[in-house]
């Protein structure tokens, strides 16, 4: 573990942060009034979306573990909510190695919850921003073997990176470091499924100082350019499940989700 815990993380409670708003939407306690203020203004469907994202991550991680994937890089981890990704995959692959990354210092405060690995496996945590992909990969190489397949997890993250910050280029850079047989797991808020709700969410986050870049299905599909989509392809979060899994209960969702293999 290379993250320095000797100094308390500097947490800015004067403005909302996506990880803490997400925690509030999931019913967590690790948020501040400024985050709750944003969450309170969001439509009820925002809580559904947070829950759906989490459930998709659970199914995708379990599916990949069932296929023998034993290395995971989870960026935009968020505040720990059990079961965390390493707990899911290590149920099937006890030797799995997982690296988490997030840019909110409050996640560092809870990093120990992300690091209780099975003794056969390993977990690590880095405080870093997805906009610094080289830094994340440099750190992750200390734990993960990038000459072997790695599952890159970007759950409900890239819609916080608007086009002018080159969201697609960031994902291309990260995927470009992965060996053949690796996977990209990504979920992303849609602008074209429920446009009025999406615009309401974007506006309320903006009032809290958080910019969002919701995207159309075609724009989300671009994140998977050059990759091989795993069935059922690019669908809504509640429609994605592995062939060995029971389908989730039918439910409307404003989130696109997919898993794709690096050829």
UniProtKB/TrEMBL annotation:
Pfam families: Methyltransf_19 (PF04672). GO terms for biological process: methylation. It comes from the Bacteria. Keywords: Methyltransferase, Transferase. One of its GO terms (molecular function) is methyltransferase activity. The keyword Nuclease does not apply. This is SAM-dependent methyltransferase. It comes from Streptomyces griseicoloratus.
């Amino acid at each position: 573990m290379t993250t320095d815990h000797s100094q308390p993380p500097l947490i800015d409670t004067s403005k909302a942060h996506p990880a803490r708003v997400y925690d509030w939407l999931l019913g967590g306690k690790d948020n501040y009034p400024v985050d709750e203020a944003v969450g309170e203004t969001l439509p009820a469907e925002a809580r559904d979306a947070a829950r759906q994202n989490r459930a998709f991550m659970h199914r995708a991680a379990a599916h990949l573990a069932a296929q023998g994937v034993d290395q995971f890089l989870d960026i935009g981890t968020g505040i720990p909510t059990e079961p965390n990704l390493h707990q899911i995959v290590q149920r099937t692959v006890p030797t799995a190695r997982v690296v988490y990354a997030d840019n909110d210092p409050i996640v560092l405060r809870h990093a120990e919850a992300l690091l209780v690995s099975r003794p056969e496996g390993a977990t690590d945590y880095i405080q870093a921003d997805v906009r610094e992909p080289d830094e994340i990969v440099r750190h992750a190489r200390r734990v993960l073997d990038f000459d072997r397949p790695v599952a890159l997890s970007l759950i409900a993250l890239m819609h916080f990176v608007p086009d002018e910050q080159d969201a697609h280029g960031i994902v291309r850079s990260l995927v470009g470091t992965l060996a053949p047989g690796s996977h990209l797991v990504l979920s992303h808020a849609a602008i074209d499924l429920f446009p009025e709700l999406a615009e309401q969410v974007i506006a309320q986050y903006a009032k809290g100082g958080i910019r969002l870049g919701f995207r159309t299905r075609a724009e989300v599909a671009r994140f998977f350019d050059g990759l091989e989509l795993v069935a059922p392809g690019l669908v809504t979060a509640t429609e994605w499940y592995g062939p060995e899994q029971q389908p989730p209960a039918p439910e409307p969702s404003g989130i696109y989700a997919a898993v794709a293999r690096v050829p």
